[in-house]
Amino acid sequence: MAIPFANNDFVKNVHCKVFHLGANISFRFLLKIKLNNNLRNIITIILMNPSRATATKSDPTIDNIISFFFSKKYAGEIRVLNLFPFYASDANKLGELLEKCKATYGKKYYKILYLNNKLIEKHLDISERVVCAWGGRPSMLKHQQMNYNIQRQAVHDVFNSTNQANVYATCMHTSEDKPYSSLLTNKKNPRHYAYNVKPQCLKCYEVPKKFGFRW
Do the Cβ atoms of 27 and 19 come closer than 8 Å? Predict the structure, then answer.
């Protein structure tokens, strides 16, 4: 369900530009959320792909991210990027959407991903923390495994070309005695900000290189 940002007391203002490929495909590169506090630092979150959030309406995952970072007083501004910038509210339909984009728009599809990755590179430099939170690969994306692997490798190359010291992920408080044991999934992906997990149950940890993501 789309939730108006205007109803969220944690949010001061939101900037987001939505682009369109034809009549049925939409994408966004960046969602900027200024929190209702006096902090000035920027935290960037990298998710799998946009669901519903725009400049006026949020979604459950974005609401959870806002609640978490506002309560922890980690940042004055949240910037949300994605592995894939294309809107798909059902993650299991993402693979089909990527195939459609690539087949129909060809060079435009690759240019969009290129610009998306350059924006990730920029935010590695300007953000106090970059929190990877794209979760595991959606089950239906296995049929388009090549698209997923190519883009994930491209983002991996961006991380390797910059200082990785500010890269973080989140895990449950229940693992605080051994926090890194649940920092990544079994397949070494950073965990998603599940909308059904209360923000107070999460904690943000820097990702040591020895626990590096599996690409």
Answer: yes
Instruction: List, for residues 175-207, the tens digit of each pLDDT value.
Output: 455 554 566 666 667 776 654 445 454 566 555
Report d(CA 199, CA 71) in Å as an integer: 8
How many angstroms separate the CA atoms of 46 and 88, rounded?
A: 15
Kindly give the residue spans of alpha helices, DSSP state H, lying in the chain: 60-72, 94-105, 107-126, 145-160
Quote the longest CA-to-CA distance of the chain.
Answer: 50
Q: Are 49 and 87 in contact (CB under 8 A)?
A: yes
Domain count within the chain: 1
The residue assigned the tokens 């106090």 is 128
User: Residue 171 carries which side chain, given as an amino acid letter?
Assistant: C
Residue 104: which domain range?
3-211
Q: How many residues does the chain have?
A: 215
Angle at 44 between CA 59 and CA 148, to 5 degrees: 75
Which pTM does this prediction carry? 0.84
Instruction: Summarize pLDDT for 23-78 with one digit per residue, the tens.
Output: 899 999 999 999 999 999 999 999 999 999 999 999 988 998 898 889 888 889 99
Q: Which amino acid does the sequence have at 184?
A: L
Spatial separation of the C-alpha atoms in residues 187 and 215, rounded to whole Å: 9
Q: How far apart are CA 111 and CA 114, in angstroms?
A: 5
According to DSSP, the residues that pair with 34 across neighbouring strands are: 13, 77
Give the number of other Cβ atoms within 10 Å of residue 175's Cβ. 14
Structure-block tokens of residue 36: 């209702």
